[in-house]
Design goal:
Elements lengths: L3 E10 L9 H14 L7 E5 L7 E5 L8 H14 L3 E9 L7
Antiparallel strand pairs: 1-3, 1-4, 2-3
Helix pairs in contact: 1-2
């Protein structure tokens, strides 16, 4: 996987079944994320489309340019665990890997 500076995660159902109401789940998930990465406290927002299939979006607010790769991977793993019936897609900018000479 190419390292990304993630700005948005999109969760969509795999089998055409709508995602469940996710507000409480996402609030708990973000609390876990902020505990692990306190430097990002308050920068994430989420929404869920009101109509089926109930797509879920987690994204950074305007004051943040994106999650660094380690934080992005951690949040992606949390989302994958929270939505095993869905596909989690990260969107952002490629983060160049540093090479040691």
């Amino acid at each position: 996987m190419t390292p990304l500076k993630v700005v948005t995660f999109w969760v969509r159902p795999l089998e055409g079944q709508p995602l469940p109401e996710a507000r409480a789940l996402l609030e708990g998930l973000l609390a876990i994320f902020y505990e692990a990465f306190p430097e990002y406290a308050g920068v994430l927002t989420f929404s869920q489309s009101p109509r089926p299939p109930g797509y879920v979006f987690v994204y950074v607010n305007q004051g943040c340019t994106g999650l660094l790769p380690m934080a992005g991977r951690f949040l992606q793993e949390l989302l994958q665990q929270a939505f095993p019936q869905g596909e989690v897609r990260p969107y952002g900018r490629v983060w160049p890997e540093l090479r040691s000479e």
